[in-house]
């Protein structure tokens, strides 16, 4: 469970062979903004968002921990310099995309441009899904903007299957995916 006191966590919530997965902290706001503001990253996130919009997204994702008991993790290298590689996790959101998608746990991953292609998103998400399946179970949804082939491929490897395409508020097209509850749950 997240700390009730509002104090930042003293240690990562999850560890993988190469990564530490932390709950969001105030200090992560600016580094994550720099990651999502990169034009190659932003094109799959609805475009470059101004800081006030990023702040709302960041606090929504952090608030998911308090309200639902799950949320996005801040991803760092184990034993590294502490710099943020991205965020990966499961959050709760209402996007206005329909009853089959809204108001459900949604998986997502964003990795810093110089760390893409090293398997970090997959490594983090496998650990997160293992944690999710043991702590919460249940189905997950995921949204990936069309053209983001690496993320679509990763989603498939993680057990997500296409539901349908949808138009996002910025006019871009996205694939909505679903990961059913895993066997034995």
Question: Helix and strand layout, with pairings?
Answer:
Layout lengths: L13 E2 L3 E4 L6 H9 L1 H4 L8 H18 L3 E6 L6 E10 L10 E8 L8 H16 L4 E6 L3 H9 L3 E7 L5 E7 L6
Architecture overview:
The chain has 185 residues and is an alpha+beta fold. The protein has helices at 29-37, 39-42, 51-68, 120-135, 149-157; strands at residues 14-15, 19-22, 72-77, 84-93, 104-111, 140-145, 161-167, 173-179. Strands 1-2-3-4-5-6-8-7 form an eight-stranded mixed beta sheet, with helices on both faces. A hairpin with a 5-residue loop joins strand 7 and strand 8. The longest helix has 18 residues, at 51-68. The radius of gyration is 15 Å and the shape is globular. The two termini are 21 Å apart.
């Amino acid at each position: 469970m997240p700390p009730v006191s509002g104090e930042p966590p003293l240690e990562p919530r999850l560890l993988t062979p190469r990564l530490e997965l932390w709950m969001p902290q105030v200090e992560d706001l600016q580094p994550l903004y720099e990651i999502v503001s990169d034009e190659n990253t932003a094109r799959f996130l609805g475009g470059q968002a101004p800081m006030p919009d990023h702040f709302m997204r960041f606090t929504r994702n952090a608030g998911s921990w308090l309200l639902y008991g799950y949320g996005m993790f801040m991803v760092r290298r184990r034993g590294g310099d502490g710099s943020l590689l991205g965020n990966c996790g499961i959050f709760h959101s209402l996007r206005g995309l329909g009853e089959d998608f809204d108001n459900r746990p949604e998986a997502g991953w964003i990795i810093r441009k110089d760390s893409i292609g090293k398997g970090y998103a997959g490594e983090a998400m496998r650990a997160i899904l293992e944690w999710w399946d043991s702590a919460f179970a249940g189905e997950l949804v995921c949204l990936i903007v069309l053209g983001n082939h690496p993320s679509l491929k990763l989603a498939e490897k993680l057990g997500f299957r296409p539901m349908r395409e949808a138009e996002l508020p910025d006019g871009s097209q996205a694939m909505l995916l679903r990961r059913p509850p895993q066997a034995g749950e």
